[in-house]
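Milestone M4 deliverable, item 7.
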Amino acid sequence: MEPARIEHTVLGPTTALSDIHACLDVALHYGMRACIPPWALGPATEYANVELTTVLDFPHGQGATDAVSYAAEAAWEAGADELDLVAPVGRLEAGDDEWVDEHLSEVVAAVPIPVKVIVEAPLLTDEELHRIATLAVEADAAYLKTATGFADGGATVEDVELLGQYLPVKASGGIGSWDAAEAMFEAGAERIGASSGDTIVEQWRDQRGPDG
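Output delivered:
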């Protein structure tokens, strides 16, 4: 396991600059990426040389397309290396697939960096997951991400396996240990998003042992 496959995350509603610095310290120490709020990109690029992901239209995916596209451009210009875009699952559930397709396509096309589409899998049926995954492929997204972590439920092996039929997967939501992360990797996940990235890496190292 490469620690760079983990995105150490701090996205809570009370996140302050001190939390961003702590997240970056951990990511830098362990060789992980970091996933932080958009406002923190400027301070983060000044503080440490860490690969940065930020979120768009987080956590509910209810923004207007023009506004989200503008936010994507601003995040890229502020130093984001990748963007995690929340899909408008309400429109998907309503059957507005054409609107969802246009929305995702416009946001992805607004920036020259990889965009992961957060599908909020705990809220969707398998049929809906197939639909949103197909739309993400059509929009030229780089990854599918299982969840924001703010809805009930988190990443599951079944969801990773389903989504992995379409695009590389970032498993996120409720992954707090190496055992949980390993299950996601074995299911085909390329990345892990977790607020416990340091714990995951330490447990992985412990299992490998001194000669691992």
